[in-house]
Amino acid sequence: MTLRSKLLACAIALLTMAGTAQAEKLRLGTEGAYPPFNFVQPDGTIAGFDLDIGLELCKRIGADCEVVAQDWDGIIPGLIANKYDFIIASMFITEERKKQVSFTDPYYKAAMTHVVPKDSEITEFTNETLAGKVVGAQSGTTQADYAVKMYPDADVRLYPTQDEASLDMASGRLDVMVGDMLPLLDFVQKTEDGKCCKLAGEPITDPAFVGEGVGIAVRQEDNDLRERLNKALAEIRADGTYKKINDKYFSIDIYSMK
Amino acid sequence: MSLIESLSTNLPKLLDGAETTLILTGLGAALAAVFSPGLALIRLFGPTPAKMLLRAYISFVRGTPLLAQLFLVFYGSGQFRAELTGLGLWSFFRDPFNCAVLVFVINSCAYQTEILRGGIEAVPPGEIEAARAIGMTRARVLARVIFPHAYRIAWPALGNEVILLMKASALASIVTVFDLMGRTRQIFSRSFEFSVYFEAAALYLLITVVFVFLWRQIERRLTRHMRRTQGS
Amino acid sequence: MMETLFSYGPQGWGDELLAGVWVTLRLAAATLPVGLLLGFVVAAASLSRRPVLRAMGWGYTTVMRGMPEILTLFIVYNGLGLGLNRLLDHFAPQIGAVDFPPFAAGVIALALVFAAFAAEVLRGAFQAVPEGQVLAGLAIGMTGRQVFWRIKLPQLWRFALPGMGNLWLNLLKDTALVSVIALDDLMRATKVAVGVTKQPFTFYLAACLIYWGLCLGSELVLTRLEARANRGVRRA
Lengths: 258, 232, 236
Known about the structure:
heterotrimer, B: mainly alpha, MetI-like fold, 11 helices, C: mainly alpha, flat, cell inner membrane (chain B)
């Protein structure tokens, strides 16, 4: 290859890159109160596993992504109202949500778990053993559905964010907290507050509640975007990028939960 | 989903929430009303340090958002769990309902004190002099002349304050209390059914309208001796 | 400990809180003109001679003042975006979905509430102009319109100022409610800091003190404005 053709190739490559970078601006919606998946850093930016995956996917589909923070309760209405173009916020793929939005393939598998104080005597989790106990979960989540449906006789409290539920778990207001396995594992193992507590009982994997896994939500009419995200997701799984991001946060592969 | 259908599924939950809203408001307003007369007197006639302290308290309550006060008490108390447990107070702070009522009492008490102070100041000095002249003791003047008249003057403003408190009680939903607003948010976050917000709005309005009506009826009773002279 | 918590820079939360204060102030400042304008319209309707307009004015103030602010905020924030997009889908599908930024939603919701209370203050202020002045104006041959522009409106400011001052303080405090939707105001910045530092009391107390400072500052300015507005008035 001559120098000239090399230069030409570079120029073309640059042009196409510049072209794609300008071609599309997308807005990525997330919550920012769900460590280690999405959380706000002291410098004000949002980081976490969801963000790393989401921004990598943006790069792969040639989009320039802006991050938009949105409270959980309004996160699906916000997508429909076009406040952002897709949600990557550790959202379980459930039938109820599918009526509102459509999902990509799962980008990780999820299970739910119970958290109790270290000195707790609760070992079995049934409506009878939890009757009259205070059970906390984040409002509008599958774990909130689970707590409300499975423990009708417990005093169920729903918090706007998981962070606030965890804060109250640590301060001793809750007897039991129901939440996603991974963030809560992080909570009890890695945080100062989480020292109060431990995971208990069997992981909850009932598909009626946890669905097929965790997916990226897009508006129902944006089929094209969904397909492109799926393709990019398969790509980063295949070339090891996913594993690199995964290992930054977790000791197990959360895509297969092994 | 039709309106009737949506109402019939949501209404029981919303009414349950409305009941909590009423209890929250009623308890908050009533407890505040227990403390406000004494505080109003201190605010007017107390020693200077006590006056200054009260003024600072009232200014703080009026100068900060109720939401911030609620978070300060609810999540803030968690930071002092050990100390509160030592004092035997943790079981009180543990319940979000108690925290909400506490904040509403602190809040409403500041406003009620100011309203009552205005009412007491508006009592014509002649009435007090007359009561003194016929030999009433100070306590009697307070109980028989000043407070009855001050409450009559302050009555409409106190009613407004209760309505403001009722509306403000919607914030309790943010610290996990299932009041009317809490139930509404719960229903919306599951079904994304927008009409539930309008159903809640209608219930809040209904509560306000009924309350205003009842409050006016009491006002008519309080002022019935004043209408007699007009020959009705 | 305290110094690092509230320091300015990547380690502390001082800059985030300050940025939050800035959003809070911008939000209140942007709401004020919109709310005032809307308040004038509503007040005009409630003082109108047409019963239909009067009823509409009355209905608006009653509904808005009877609903919790946070409910209004939820309806505007979640509803306006959804409603707008549904309308567009229906009538002009070629435009596609439009964006409805949280700041605008916050301003609209707060302005709707502000307007209802402002309308009552303005209505009271209009009615506070002494009847004699109006009669005097008419007696020297002014038209109703002239009476409005030359006698009523110039005095409105003076009569409305105390009430408006209170509404401004309420507005400053109500901005905290937008933290429940998704705007990085002072309250939300505080919540985020609490989420990370796990020091709720420290940070919520700091937030309370900042709001208190803002309100005390506003009161100082308002007292001066009132003194200025009343400078030509004879005192008993």
